[in-house]
Specification:
The complex is a heterotetramer, with two copies of chain A (301 residues) and two copies of chain C (233 residues). Helix content of chain A is 31%, strand content 20%. Chain A is an alpha/beta fold and 301 residues long. Chain A has one domain: TIM Barrel. Chain A has an eight-stranded parallel beta barrel, surrounded by six helices. The longest helix of chain A is centred in the last third of the chain and has 16 residues, at 274-289. Chain A starts with 6 loop residues before the first strand and ends in a 12-residue tail after the last helix. With 233 residues, chain C is α/β, with parallel strands linked by helices. Chain C has two domains: 2-85, Elongation Factor Tu (Ef-tu), domain 3 (Beta Barrel), CATH 2.40.30.10; 96-192, Rossmann fold. In chain C, 18% of the residues lie in helices and 35% in strands. Chain C has helices at 65-71, 108-118, 137-143, 155-158, 173-182, 227-230; strands spanning 2-11, 14-19, 30-34, 44-47, 50-52, 55-61, 78-85, 96-101, 124-130, 146-151, 166-170, 189-192, 208-211, 214-217, 224-226. Classes of the chains: A alpha/beta (301), C alpha/beta (233). Chain A binds chain C through residues 23-26, 30-31, 33, 46, 54-55, 57, 59-63, 65-68, 70, 72, 75, 217-218, 246, 266, 268-270, 272, and chain C through 34, 38-43, 82, 196-199, 201-208, 210, 214-215, 220. Bound molecules: flavin-adenine dinucleotide (FAD) (2 copies), flavin mononucleotide (2 copies) and FE2/S2 (inorganic) cluster (FES) (2 copies). One FE2/S2 (inorganic) cluster binds at residues 197-200, 202-207, 217-219 of chain D.
Amino acid sequence: MSKCLETMFNEILFKNPVISASGTFGFGREYEAFYDLEKLGGLCTKGLTLEPKAGNKGIRLWETPAGLMNSIGLENPGIDAFIKNEWPHLKDVNTVTIINVGGKDEESYLKAIEKLNAVDAQLIELNISCPNVKAGGMAYGIKATTAGDITKKVVELSKHPVMVKLSPNGDAISEIALACEIAGAKGISLINTLQGMAIDYKKKSAVFNNLYAGLSGPAVKPIALRMTHQVCQAVTIPVMAMGGISTWEDALEFIMAGATCIQMGTMNFNNPMAPVEMIEGLEIYCQKEGLSNISEIRGII
Amino acid sequence: MSKCLETMFNEILFKNPVISASGTFGFGREYEAFYDLEKLGGLCTKGLTLEPKAGNKGIRLWETPAGLMNSIGLENPGIDAFIKNEWPHLKDVNTVTIINVGGKDEESYLKAIEKLNAVDAQLIELNISCPNVKAGGMAYGIKATTAGDITKKVVELSKHPVMVKLSPNGDAISEIALACEIAGAKGISLINTLQGMAIDYKKKSAVFNNLYAGLSGPAVKPIALRMTHQVCQAVTIPVMAMGGISTWEDALEFIMAGATCIQMGTMNFNNPMAPVEMIEGLEIYCQKEGLSNISEIRGII
Amino acid sequence: MAIIQSNDCLIPLIYKMSVDFTGAVLPGQFFMLRAWDKDPLLSRPISVHDYETGQLTFLYQVVGKGTEILSRLKPGDNVEIQGPYGNGFPEVSEDLCVVGGGIGVAPLHYLVKKYKEKNPQGTCRVYLGFRENSYGVEAFESMADEVILDIGGIITNRLKVNPGEVVMTCGPEMLMAAVANMVPPENKVYVSMEAHMACGIGACLGCTCETKSGNKKVCKDGPVFLREEVFYE
Amino acid sequence: MAIIQSNDCLIPLIYKMSVDFTGAVLPGQFFMLRAWDKDPLLSRPISVHDYETGQLTFLYQVVGKGTEILSRLKPGDNVEIQGPYGNGFPEVSEDLCVVGGGIGVAPLHYLVKKYKEKNPQGTCRVYLGFRENSYGVEAFESMADEVILDIGGIITNRLKVNPGEVVMTCGPEMLMAAVANMVPPENKVYVSMEAHMACGIGACLGCTCETKSGNKKVCKDGPVFLREEVFYE
Ligand SMILES: Cc1cc2nc3c(=O)[nH]c(=O)nc-3n(C[C@H](O)[C@H](O)[C@H](O)COP(=O)(O)OP(=O)(O)OC[C@H]3O[C@@H](n4cnc5c(N)ncnc54)[C@H](O)[C@@H]3O)c2cc1C
Ligand SMILES: Cc1cc2nc3c(=O)[nH]c(=O)nc-3n(C[C@H](O)[C@H](O)[C@H](O)COP(=O)(O)OP(=O)(O)OC[C@H]3O[C@@H](n4cnc5c(N)ncnc54)[C@H](O)[C@@H]3O)c2cc1C
Ligand SMILES: Cc1cc2nc3c(=O)[nH]c(=O)nc-3n(C[C@H](O)[C@H](O)[C@H](O)COP(=O)(O)O)c2cc1C
Ligand SMILES: Cc1cc2nc3c(=O)[nH]c(=O)nc-3n(C[C@H](O)[C@H](O)[C@H](O)COP(=O)(O)O)c2cc1C
Ligand code: FES
Ligand code: FES
């Protein structure tokens, strides 16, 4: 296999820049029926919290034009169960596993991070941007000050490099990104879902128990691309971009906008083979364009 | 014709709550080939500025999944030419004509407003949210303080009621809306386009000369609906909602979320008859549901 | 990608589609179908209505955009099918009582067929309720020992479960809850749940169903659950 | 809504579609076509390739999603057509020299046909340039007085315009600019411009083209412009 897609993200080597996004890929196992996970540049776990979380009640998914709304509410087995049941399997997969961590307050973030110090992970994705939980989550991610504060504490405690996942729903995203960089983040990932609403006019009620939910998928791509560009202009740490990426052409656009890696989320549902097809597409592109490495077109815009 | 769709917006009577959105409907004439404009609840002019404006160069339109990006840059003939060439025709159309006004600084907004005092219009839509012009435009609309300031001055000067059109790209939209209400706005309209970016990977360059452009169409509907709901909870003045509305069902959802009227923009391009079909759909809905007026289901969520 | 053999309208809005497929398929399992690019974005879960080597059949109702597109497909067209997914109905050797409501009858056909293949001696009784028009009833008449049909009424008003029968039901949640409620605790009852699904394979947690033993995934742990797991209050 | 009479592939990626239509249609005008719901969102502008009462014909190249969907339509299918839109080529009585490049030949067929109908005595010469394979050339051979064909080269290298001829051109902007540049100022030159379009009727200002006399709308003021209007620098 050619090395044209090999990508350094901070000090971590990814065999290619295509990573499956948190919450759309379980803990990876389900997709093993479709392809060998080693093909991926990396994968990101479902958002984990200190304690197990049952998530939200009621309808959790709703389609919109070229988009998907979700209100999962961070359902997850908790860090301990993850370390016990999922990590032994994941750690042996020859790809970069990124552990996505959520929380409801400072303490729960920090305790979760502390526990994860026990495993030999390569990268933590600090989720301060989930719009579907009431406490914590997005609350930290919509202001530069709070985002910087929590990042600083997490970075100090974590033995792993920390990438902060930003919300598109708050203050100017480049300012938040910069605050995270200053606080010691080793990377930025964006965007988490956009806050949206759905109404079922037949039932005369909101679709989601939480009223609002998170929008993802191709519909949001133009917004994600703009924010990626803004953040790449603002920070020097590497950026992992996502939001509606569905083809290798999309991936390329985000890389041209400055992203080091990209994540694919919602489109895993539309086509489980999408990440693998994306990797192949990028490889062929590099060959056709005579690029010895994809980084040659990174950030050219 | 039944009166079930008659709607009071502030003190203005609309025969129905369906209005064509600024910039997607020219000055109305073009759509006269499709239907009688009197069928509409109202129509909104292309954004007008004090001086004529040539708009942006380069590509101005780009399709995205279920969305449209535009970078027109407020091309318009200027207020004087509007008053001379378009107003004589528009003022005789038996529907509410809303005049959309943009500007590059306080002075140009105020001079434009002053000139419009000479015509007998029913409602001004103050556009402080255009993402496609460099000076002015969105700059006023993304902070509650500046939005309130300019609104106050415009309201004081204008002999017409003023509705302020908000940007989805700035601070918490309900705070901006509230600032406008306090400043004397008689209504709020939202959302203007979302700031997005497009890259042409074949050309290895940004599609738009301005780099970023405005996203509209069905893709943004969930975001627009959420913001409409937030603003309707925050203010007591009536709200005119838009953003991806394409069918009568969509319109109904926005009304259930609290909107008094709705505007249809991008979907005029997809189907020129869309507003008329929407009005018919809403009328049938009222009959079926036994509503004597559509207001009975307004804001039920 | 599967090739469509036939796709016929039985009565307005109800279609039966057969596609080329060979593989192991259990009653109560489903496939994720798609015959479009990104509008709608997701695939649609549809149960196995019938299967024999080389031929997989679905019975579906047009309710929205996805099923509408499916209904327009013609023999020879392609449809993306992923599956079979889900646990399916368990294999039982007791007598079987099947209760279907509306399009919920879709998975019951293959269920009854397989049951009768495995238990030629066993008794299988079928209750079918429809709001206006029935469909697919004759097939049951030729397989089952008794078919009780109700149109426009409430099928559970007629339901009498015999001692020792296992009950399996699919239909509107209201119907299944009623069945769960009225069948004596001595009879086992299996219900086939529905949920909005994105992935169909257990990766998105969108189809979660609360059960007595915590959240379960309808797509992977279900769609078939024991009554006491889901209707436990 | 128009019904498709035929939709044939001439050479790979080039299709000719005829639909039921009767109305007044000028050479150089276009229609907005759509055979999808919201994916893609907009209609696609396609020029009139040929028209006679009851039959409107388009010639188009598959370049993306919209044209790809068009290419899959079959006789009897529906396609939404709005139009005719635009000004079209002017009617002239001078001799005519037509220059087409690639799919830019699409509108020239109807142009030459109408010219010859109105000016049986007039001379019409046609230059056609293609990158790899030609299409639709025979039709010109039967109508025009001379057809100069170039495949793989640069058609403007061959172009010689006779005194008094009016030139009309459609093709890549580079080609039209070259034509505009080389034709002596005594000859009138008309060019047919392209632009991304949303509405097609002058309402969105998306298709603006800078001209010597300010912004013009390609969809309404064009697509046909005098050379000096658009290539004026
Ligand atoms: C395990 C399982 C098996 C099923 N088997 C059958 C079958 O054999 N025959 C049949 O006719 N129907 C079956 N359904 C229901 C079928 O999946 C829905 O009717 C279908 O998804 C509706 O899609 P649509 O685009 O036509 O409607 P839309 O209303 O446009 O769909 C909108 C959204 O809601 C979701 N949705 C709507 N209704 C349902 C529903 N009842 N269940 C799950 N998601 C829904 C869709 O997936 C989509 O995301 C089954 C559902 C499940 C979960
Ligand atoms: C007045 C006019 C007449 C035309 N006549 C013909 C014709 O007779 N035959 C023919 O094959 N083509 C013609 N074209 C070009 C044709 O409209 C485009 O090739 C087509 O819109 C591409 O759509 P797509 O979905 O296949 O491609 P995509 O690349 O998916 O389109 C993406 C977007 O770009 C726009 N776009 C892409 N290329 C063009 C283009 N060249 N011009 C305008 N918009 C474009 C599309 O409208 C769409 O918004 C004409 C264009 C114009 C403006
Ligand atoms: C069903 C679903 C569940 C998600 N769960 C999480 C999560 O647990 N943690 C997280 O950081 N992001 C979560 N996300 C957000 C995605 O990781 C991603 O940021 C977002 O969907 C945008 O990318 P996309 O458009 O490619 O899906 C979830 C998204 C979806 C659709
Ligand atoms: C081509 C185009 C031009 C627009 N021009 C203006 C404008 O001049 N003034 C303005 O206030 N909004 C303008 N808008 C924004 C629309 O009025 C509307 O707020 C936005 O498109 C969202 O609604 P929609 O999704 O229904 O299109 C424009 C939108 C489009 C697509
Ligand atoms: S549909 Fe994704 S977990 Fe069940
Ligand atoms: S396409 Fe809208 S003005 Fe020309």
